[in-house]
Amino acid sequence: MRFFRRARGEEYTEEDKAVHAHAADLNGSGNLDSGVSDVENGMENAADEMNGDFRRLNLDATVDVEDLKMNHVKVEYDELPQKNIGLEVRGAKDIQRLAEETNCDKPADSVVMLDVEASNPSTILDVAIKGLSEYAAFPPSLAGEARANILIQDVDRSVDQLQGDKYVSATASTAFTWRRYIQGSGFIVTYGRVHGLDRRVSVVLRLAKQENCSKFDPSAPAFVAITIAPTFEQKATKTEYEGARNFAAMLQDEEFYREAYSALNEEELRSAAAHYVGRKVVYEDDLYANGLKGGDVGFEDMMRTGKLFGGLVADIKRKYKWSVYKSDWTDGMTDWRSILKYISTTAWLYFAVIMPIIAFGSLNDENTRQQIGVSESVLSQAICGGLSALFAGQPLAITMTTGPVTVFISVLFSWSEGLGIPFLPFYAWTGIWAAIILTLIVMFDLIAYVRFVGQFTEEIFAMLVALIFISNYIKPLVDAAYEKPTDVFLLSFLLATGMYVMSRWLSLFERRYLLNGITRTLLADFGMPFSVLVWAGIRQIFTNVDVDMLQVPETSGIVTTSGRSWIVPLGDLPVGYIFLAIVPAIFLCMLFYVDQNVAVLLTNKNENKLEKGVGYFLDMQVIAVSMIICSILGIPWANAAVPHSHLHAKILAEKEEYESHGRVEYRIVRAREVRITNFLTHVLIFVSMFLLFIVGYIPSSVVWGFFLYIGVATLDGNQMFERLLLIFTQPTKYPPNHYVRRVPMMRVVLYTLIQYALLILLWFVNENFYLPEGGVFNAGLLFPLVILSFVPIRKLLLPRIFLRKELHALEMEKEDFSD
After folding, report:
1. Between vectors from CA 206 to CA 203 and to CA 211, what angle results, nearest 5°?
2. Which terminal CB of the chain, N or C, has fewer other CB atoms within 10 Å?
3. 55: nearest Cα among 229, 278, 252, 273
4. pLDDT by residue (tens digit) across 782-809?
């Protein structure tokens, strides 16, 4: 574990981009001594972590330890992972430049000075600037500004200093100390900016005598490294702070430190730097070449067992273990915050599920001439979703009928019409055969091969789903503009866009600083359901404008759309056609194999911090059982849906704000893996069958706005989308994330373009606009085959184009600090 410490104050300057400084509150304790104790406890903890670790201190120009205590400002110790120079493109270049340059050649970017006779920060910096002026063409006129940006003036009064394991009162021994720096065992790296400099320069000094150079730390460094950068905007990987981190990583390496400490001259120290970077690069290359890094990890519970139903049995033992299953229902039930989160998530899920289900039900009603309609779709959702909530291995996954299933039902109806056979019996037998095939897939552990799908394919699939939802906002508005009166179009546009803007704004309210934390969380959690109600209410103001409403049956209750019996007459289909139904069943199985498993893969991603284990085999078996029920009742089949499933996990989770390379980001710190929200949602959906007339008050345009909202939400955190934005981003604005730092930008662009080429292919197949409408074939049936074809492209083709470590960096969810 490595730590840096930073003083948090209200001021946040341009120079301090690398460190966010915020005013610290008293955590609601009302204890005026809490700030003091935080300082003391934090410094004591840091002292325990000194050996072999490094930390960073960032001070405002007027802050010292006494000021921190008097103002109750916390000194916090946060994890500062060491950079892996063997993987960092810019980091390796910086160290390599230090290794190759000399102090007697043309103006250098890195200067080495040995056995420097200096014992305090002010003298050390003077020597460093002199060396930079002589060997790196550093303008002497900038010396004053460099001092002002790198040093902080000391105060001539008593301060508390750490000596051993105690604090004693001592007088500050130096006139200046470092303003901001990284400190490790035996070294200090400091950094700053000055105007008028044309490039970043650095100097590494080995002191003739180890002296305490830091007012706030008693250790005596042998090395001081200083990085000075220009004030104009640069790439995030070229800032003075990133340069400082590169030197800190090198100085922390024991072998380099030993060689540099015993170096007799400048060339030997530079040779030690060359050995260091070469050793790190070769080591990482060997790990990837030998398959020790970059392979498939995290799928131990998805391997084939070699036994019939071996994977299913393992899932049942893991997920139905009483202590685990009980916790799925009881976790958080004594915590009012969790209970409130369950209520808000249930409300969110209800509207997020019921609106698209009614929309898909209306399409089924039209495509099948009322043999499958809204009533059937709602009942299917209640049954399939309820079964998954009760019995699935991953209860956070939301099972629902999807767009591809709706297309499949339409094609199946066209086939039955062309063959002159009854649709519902043909539909039922197709589902029964598909359920049998899925059970065989579970029996022989074929779900295990899902682990080969990987981030490459998951990102493409999620992007396609996002584009489909976004297009379902755009296309109906375009149609309304051409086909509806102007007032209808304008109101539809207002309702759809207003729904999106309000729900999106409220969903991000938790990240703002208005109101208190609980209120912000409530507004974020209930934002989307509240927006639906608001804009449905606004529609009632304009009753004279005839906008489309959600189409719901006139009769509520458990009744079919056409008045038919709920049980499909399976015997009405001739025997030959019963076996012919195996053909569409195979296509249906491929669709469910891809849709179901990709949705659960996205839900189980490491970033969601789930801890109760996976249940892919159990999930698929529950889907197969529900498919038989749906087939017999003549209602739509359902499987785990993107993006509802992984959004469900994110909405339930606790998140925190954190700093990553100078940028504020958000991450999940605690997951809530429960069944209660999924189950209650589908209880409400079942009750809705008796109250569908109320849902009918929601305008279709509000649903379009919801589609845009959920499509944009799907893009959040999708690295494929983030990399697309990089192509159009000014290089100095690149975020310093792992793939930007570890992969050359042209390689990042190439990888991204390959993904988007495949996305266009997938979109082309899915949309089917080039074939006659209502035909007996729909290219969308090939959708799962195209998705599966991406697996060999990733596994066989891309390794011929990219290095293994480049693919690993591009496909990491977040930075892997274990590297």
Report:
1. 120
2. N
3. 252
4. 888 999 999 999 999 999 999 999 999 9
**How confident is the model over 383-437, as pLDDT tens digits?**
999 999 999 999 999 999 998 999 899 989 999 998 999 999 999 999 999 999 9
- pLDDT, tens digit, for every residue of 191-220? 999 998 988 999 999 998 876 665 555 567
Over residues 564-581, the mean pLDDT reads 95
Instruction: Note whether 473 and 711 are within 8 A (CB).
Output: yes
Q: What is the DSSP letter of 545?
A: S
Residue with tokens 């209602």: 635
User: In 444-551, where does DSSP find H-type helix?
Assistant: 454-483, 486-507, 517-525, 527-539
Spatial neighbors of 76 by CB under 8 A, at least 6 apart, are: 5, 6, 8, 38, 42
Alpha carbons 699 and 496: distance in angstroms, whole number? 9
Tell me which amino acid residue 220 is: A
DSSP string, 799-819: GGTS-HHHHHHHT-SS--TT-
pLDDT digits (tens, 9 = 90+) for 12-56: 333 333 333 332 232 333 333 333 333 333 333 333 333 344 555
Report d(CA 160, CA 151) in Å as an integer. Answer: 20
Q: How far apart are CA 398 and CA 390, in angstroms?
A: 12
Q: Dihedral of CA 796/801/805/810: which sign?
A: negative
Place of tokens 């200083």: 226
Higher pLDDT, 429 or 231: 429
Q: What are phi and psi of 203, to 5 degrees?
A: -140, 135
Phi first, then psi: give them for residue 181, nearest 5 degrees: -165, 165
Which residue type does 355 have?
A: M
CA distance 257 to 185: 10
Tokens for 590, please give them: 């491929």
Q: pLDDT tens digits for 610-639?
A: 999 999 999 999 999 999 999 999 999 999
The radius of gyration of the chain from alpha carbons, rounded to an integer in Å, stands at 31
Answer yes or no: are the C-beta atoms of 355 and 701 closer than 8 Å: no
Q: Which residues contact 595 (CB under 8 A, 6 or more apart)?
A: 402, 404, 639, 640, 641, 642, 784
Amino acid of residue 196: G
Strands 187-194 and 180-184: antiparallel
Q: Measured between alpha carbons, how far is 406 from 603 in angstroms, rounded to an integer?
A: 23
Determine contact, residues 810/740, Cβ cutoff 8 Å: no
C-alpha distances in angstroms, 146 versus 120, 123, 151, 387? 16, 13, 8, 67
Nearest-CA neighbor of 621 among 373, 244, 314? 314
Label residue 818 by pLDDT band (50, 70, 90): very low
Find the DSSP H helices in 689-782: 692-695, 700-715, 719-727, 738-742, 745-767
**For residue 164, how many C-alpha atoms fall within 13 Å in the half-sphere facing its CB?**
2
Residues near 206 by beta carbon (within 8 Å), at least 6 away in sequence: 113, 114, 115, 116, 222, 223, 260, 261, 263, 269
pTM above 0.90, yes or no: no
SS (H, E, C) 677-710: HHHHHHHHHHHHCCCHHHHCCCEHHHHHHHHHHH
Amino acid at the residue 247 = F
Contact call for residues 57 and 73 (beta carbons, < 8 A): no
Q: How far apart are alpha carbons 246 and 191 in whole angstroms?
A: 12
Q: Which residues contact 111 (CB under 8 A, 6 or more apart)?
A: 103, 128, 131, 132, 135, 136, 201, 202, 203, 204
Helix (H, G, I), strand (E, B) or coil at 166: strand
Task: Identify the CA nearest to 812 among candidates 770, 768, 751.
Answer: 751
**Rounded CA separation 555/490 (Å):** 31
| Cα–Cα distance measured from residue 456 to residue 460, given in angstroms and rounded to the nearest whole number | 7
